[in-house]
Every structure is written in C-alpha cells, then in structure tokens.
Amino acid sequence: MDPARLARLAEKTDLAALLDRLEGMSAEDLDRLVGPGRSGGDGARGGAARPPYAPPAPDADFYGLFERQLTDDQQRARRVVRRFMVDEVAPVINDYWERGEMPFEIVPGFRDALHEAFGPNPAERYCTDGFLTGLVSMEIPRVDPSVGTFLGVHWGLCLYSIWRFGSDAQKERWIGPLERFEAIGSWALTEPEHGSDAALGLETTASRDGDTWTLNGAKKWSGNATFADVTVIWARDTADGNVKGFLVEKGTPGFHVDKLEGKIAKRAVQNVDIRLENVEVPEASRLPGVRTFKDVAGQLATARAGVSWEACGMAMGLYEATLDYCTRRTQFGKPIAGFQLVQEGLVRMLGNVVAIQATVLGLGQLYEEHERLHERASLAKVWCVDKMRETAQIGRGLLGGNGILLEHDVARLFADAEAVYSYEGSREMNVLITGRAITGLSAFV
C-alpha cells in the first residue's frame, strides 16, 4: 500500500487495532465490507473484477451493403471463395510471397472453389456476369492480391480475350483447358518503353507472309508467363498499322521469357520480360475479332473495373487484419484498440472501406452500359485505389514496428497496394479519361 495513504489513515484511526480486526475476518466478511473482488489479489485495482476482454468479430461489411443487396447465389459464391482463401491460402501465402514464388499447390483447390462459385460453365459466366466476377475478384485479394492477379491474367485477360475475340476453332481448343486449369494463360500488351502510351507507341510488330505472321519486339510484366501454356501477344501490323492479337504457345522458337526480379509488390506473381525474335505463328493463331486498338481498350475497361473490386477486397482485408491486431496487442496494460488515437485510425479505415464498397456496388450495376463503362471504370479505379492505399497507410502505421513484418499480413497488403496503384492504367491516365468525359476536353497532350 502507498505509505502516504497509510500515514493519512493513521491520523484518523488506530491502525494496529484495525489490522487486528481485519486479520480475524473471513473472506466473505471482507467482501461484504469492501465490495466483491476488492479483498483478493485478482480483482481490478480500485473496482470490481473486470471480465476478460472479448472483442467483437471484425465486420468489414459495417453497413450491411453486401448482406442486403446480394442474392442467395451471390452470397453463396462469396462464401465459397472466402472459405478457400482463408483455409488454404492464408496459412501459406506469406512464405511464398517472401520467396517470390507462385503457390502452385493451391491451384487444384482454387479451381474447384471457382467452379463451385460460378456453377455450370464457369468460364462463360465469368465472362458474362460482371457483377459476380467482381464479387469473386473482391474476395480473393481480401486475403491475397497475388492469387487474385493469377486468376485475373489467366481467366480475366487470356481466356476472356479468346472468348471475346477468338475464332470458333480457337475457342474449341483453349476455352475448356483454360477453364479447367489444364492449361494456364498469360497476356502481354505493355512493353519496356511503352505503358500508358501503348495505343500509339506500341513497337512490337507483326508482319504477314502468306498464312504466317512473324512477331518481333519485347513485352514487360505479363503475369503467369513463366509457366503459361499460351500467351496473348499484342503487336502492330506493319501493313496497316493496326494492333492485332496473337496466341503464342509455350516453346515457340524465338519466344523468350525471363522472370522479372527485384519486385517489392505482388511478389508471388510471376512477372516477366519477354523477347520475341522472329516468332512465327500461323494465321489461325491471330484473334480475328480484333480490328483496332479500340477493341483492346474495351477489354481494358472491363479489367479496370475489376481492379476497383480488387481495391475493395484489399481495403477490407487491411481493416480486418489491423483491427484484429489492435484488439490483441497490449500496451500500458490494455489492448491498444482501447486508445483514442488508435480508434480514430480504425474508424478512418472503416469509413474508406464502406465508401469503396458503395462505389463498386454502384459500378457493378453499370456493366451493361458499355458505351460509358470506360470512364466510369476509370473513376472507380482512381478513387477506390486512392482510398485503399490510404487505408493501407493507416493500418501499417497502427501496427507500429510490427507493420513491416509479414506475419501480421498488413505489410504484404501494404506493399501490394503499390502495384495496384500503377497497373490497368496509371492514376494519371485514369484521371484524364474521366476528366475528358466530364468536360468534353482532352488534356492528354
């Protein structure tokens, strides 16, 4: 006991007599005298014993937007994918991410979960049901964005290109194997010297001689390409100057693929440098549905919308991981979630999450309005990724030094946010696309 308190008490009473009386009292009498929980050493100081802290489960759907608006089938699909990601991917992904390797062991189960989520003819539904595809594209990066990119390139870019632009023979050959993950797809547009200006600056060439096309040039990034069985290559026709698409199979002479090293984001994604040196492909490997770059741009608008859903899932995952950490981490004798500044940060994160959710749900209702999807997807990509990136920054800060350790998951999502910030059109390009739509004036040059 505090000596000063004892001195003040001694001025008012005979301490020796008081202590003698207290020593002879039973525990029950002491409880009645001073109140329950204060007579023993286990109670809370100065009050009744506090029950153990049991934090509420993190709820990233704080407004119930998904709970109220989704059909039973959409809810079921979300649950299937969520369960697989939590049970099978979450326990292993940090190790693969740190080593910069693709977790091939999860692919069979991933395929099965996707087939269960999309039902019969999963590839067709993936390509035609933009809203359900968005929901799945949200749930995957809620746990890990690298796995989301694996699917986004495999189905969202490669398979979708064949489904949208391919001949009947190409669809017959590739859609089934890609759908069943018996073959893996990649997709290559960006070049070492051309990203944002690919529409005008694309240097990879395609020259036709009879029924043979010869491709020359270089590509960069192209997820999955180190192990893909087929890669969609976009090249400029030397005859008419238009961009055309070609299916290049693994092992084709002159098709060289090297893994891109030194990344700090989405490390489990196998990005590459591609060199095309007199790569010959038959006319039967050209995608006949592509006439100009405008066809490619239409596909990119759909992919850009998908990035908005990805940002939503990442923001949800960041909030959930940060809240879980803050309720478990104890400093100064209590969970840090009980401090005002921590709660302020958590509420800012949650506000961003709810706002992003509202945006993608609104965007999801507009997929059929193709003529305006381009600028609407650009606005969603800019705003959702900005807010997700802010959410990542807050979460990383709330974890303090532990915010740079993979074991808490926030660090991985924080780093991956930088990749999402840049791809499917830089922030600046998407701002200008939206700005042109609302002003009628182009500010690109």
TrEMBL record:
Keyword Nucleotidyltransferase recorded: no
Cofactor: FAD
Biased composition (Gly residues): 37-46
UniProt keyword list: FAD, Flavoprotein, Oxidoreductase
Domain Acyl-CoA dehydrogenase/oxidase C-terminal, residue spans: 296-438
Domain Acyl-CoA oxidase/dehydrogenase middle, first and last residues per copy: 187-279
Pfam families: Acyl-CoA_dh_1, Acyl-CoA_dh_M, Acyl-CoA_dh_N
Acyl-CoA dehydrogenase/oxidase N-terminal domain span: 71-178
Segments for region (Disordered): 30-53
Record-stated family: Belongs to the acyl-CoA dehydrogenase family.
Protein name (Swiss-Prot/TrEMBL): Acyl-CoA dehydrogenase family protein
Organism in which the protein naturally occurs: Rubrivirga litoralis
